[in-house]
Design goal:
The protein is α/β, with parallel strands linked by helices and 458 residues long. The chain contains 23 helices and 10 strands. The chain folds into 3 domains: 112 residues, Fumarate Reductase Iron-sulfur Protein, Chain B, domain 2 (Orthogonal Bundle), CATH 1.10.1060; 252 residues, NagB/RpiA/CoA transferase-like (Rossmann fold); 58 residues, no CATH class.
């Protein structure tokens, strides 16, 4: 636990002082913000759309077990195969078994945060299977040896010069190529991977219970290529992604597109119902869906249940003043930003990751911009409450707050020392956490209480 906290503080301190990093992040987030304003104009009543979406997700999660069983029944009826994975280890083993049965040494993978969550690429590499990222942002990050920086935009922290440097160092291309030239190089490299891979792996934006289908939304077409050529398609999807009906997509697709990238609708929206059937010219011969729990049922507790409504649009990250200062990698978890700070302690362990819930100003901007009206900032506060009630805070922290409470509740104690004495104590206690970056703390020579008494005497 101490190691996670110390790493978070150390990384945050570096990034918060890195002006170039903040410049790149601000530039890319502003481009996003400008397009989202335009995307919202497609809704005649945006607030009503968001309320309906939240209500739909509420119904989906309240009946999660029934919807998942309905999905399995309908998906397997058409020849698809469903694998239930309680944790990352079970999901990884299932993927490995399929790959070994097919005799493949290479898989192509479209953008998927859930595969990042279970560290699929590293696992397959240990078993001599090459997992190739086909999303351009993910491809850049894989070449650079970095994890995704953002839920939607994996390489958001990189400028075009940074990407050119990565391609030059890893692929031997000419330095300082333009974005269009870099894209064409990636396209040529990846096209050969699609046709030579036996297995394609995707995530899933939504699970449709009533038809037994997996929905994948993307803008580059790499998701479709990753499933069109390989003979086997594996979709790894978190159990919270379920929607009751295919008819819900007419609401959720535009919301995801608008809040994710500012589009009216994502370029490629694909509904997978299983392997290739007679009369179809492409697509996999067989399809597996791995339904992943990996701590998600921990989110069903009433204090944070709304977090399961998340559609992974990333809008709360782009609105968060903390994320915009420290970036995505500082969090040390797959899911960063406000929603990541809510769910990571429950997915990965409250004791090890409770500190993320304190990395928030509780300004409420994350809640304000959420397309499904998740009360994110209130759940961050609930996580803090859970940490305290479960006695997960350290002795020094608890003791410090008790002393603080005693002092703040006693006017006599507050008046016992002068302003100079208070300043010396506070500057010593908060030397590293406040004074080092912001300057010394000063107190007035007299408190308001003391001045009021003197005024009344006169």
């Amino acid at each position: 636990m101490a190691n996670n906290i110390s790493e978070f503080i150390a990384k945050s301190k570096v990034k918060a002082a890195d002006l170039e990093h903040k410049r790149k992040l601000a530039f890319n987030i502003q481009k996003y913000a400008d397009t989202v304003v335009k995307g919202k104009q497609q809704f005649s009543n945006l607030d009503l759309a968001r309320r309906r979406a939240k209500n739909t997700k509420w119904k989906a999660i309240e009946n999660l077990d029934k919807h998942l069983e309905e999905f399995e029944k309908n998906f397997t009826a058409r020849g698809g195969k469903v694998i239930w994975a309680e944790d990352a280890a079970e999901a990884l083993q299932a993927v490995l078994q399929i790959c070994q049965e097919k005799g493949t040494k290479q898989v192509v993978k479209s953008k998927s945060m859930v595969t990042e969550e279970i560290h699929l690429n590293d696992f397959l590499a240990k078993h001599n299977i090459d997992s190739v990222e086909t999303d351009l942002g993910e491809y850049i990050q894989q070449l650079d040896g970095e994890a995704p920086y953002h839920i939607v935009t994996p390489a958001m922290h990189k400028s075009k010069e940074d990407v050119a440097r990565v391609f030059h160092e890893k692929l031997g291309t000419e330095p300082n190529l333009s974005p269009s030239e870099l894209t064409q190089i990636a396209r040529v490299n990846l096209r050969a991977k699609y046709t030579s891979s036996e297995v394609g792996i995707t995530g899933g934006n939504f699970l449709l219970a009533d038809v037994g289908a997996v929905c994948v939304s993307e803008n580059e077409g790499n998701g479709r290529l990753s499933t069109a050529f390989p003979k086997t398609h594996i979709a790894i999807v978190g159990i919270e992604k379920v929607l009751p009906s295919i008819n819900d997509l007419q609401l959720f697709w535009p919301l995801l597109a608008t809040y994710g990238t500012g589009q009216n609708v994502t370029v490629y929206n694909t509904i997978f119902t299983g392997g290739r059937t007679s009369g179809e010219n492409d697509g996999p011969e067989e399809m597996y869906v791995i339904l992943l729990d990996n701590g998600r049922t921990n989110l069903l507790r009433k204090e944070v249940r709304e977090s399961m409504y998340c559609i992974r649009c990333g809008s709360c990250l782009n609105a968060c003043p903390v994320y915009k200062n420290i970036g995505g990698h500082a969090y040390g978890a797959t899911y960063s930003g406000p929603i990541g700070s809510v769910i990571s302690p429950h997915l990965k362990g409250m004791e090890e990751f409770k500190h993320l819930s304190y990395a928030s100003s509780l300004c409420g901007n994350c809640t304000e911009v959420c397309p499904v009206k998740i009360n994110i900032h209130e759940m961050l506060l609930e996580n803090r409450h859970i940490a305290v009630t479960e006695k997960l805070n350290g002795f020094s922290e608890n003791g410090g707050w008790k002393l603080w409470r005693i002092a703040m509740m006693s006017r006599g104690l507050m008046n016992m020392t002068s302003g100079n004495m208070k300043a010396r104590v506070m500057n010593k206690l908060f030397k590293s956490s406040w004074v080092a970056e912001r300057g010394k703390i000063d107190f007035a020579p007299q408190s308001f209480n003391q001045m009021w008494k003197e005024r009344n005497k006169k």
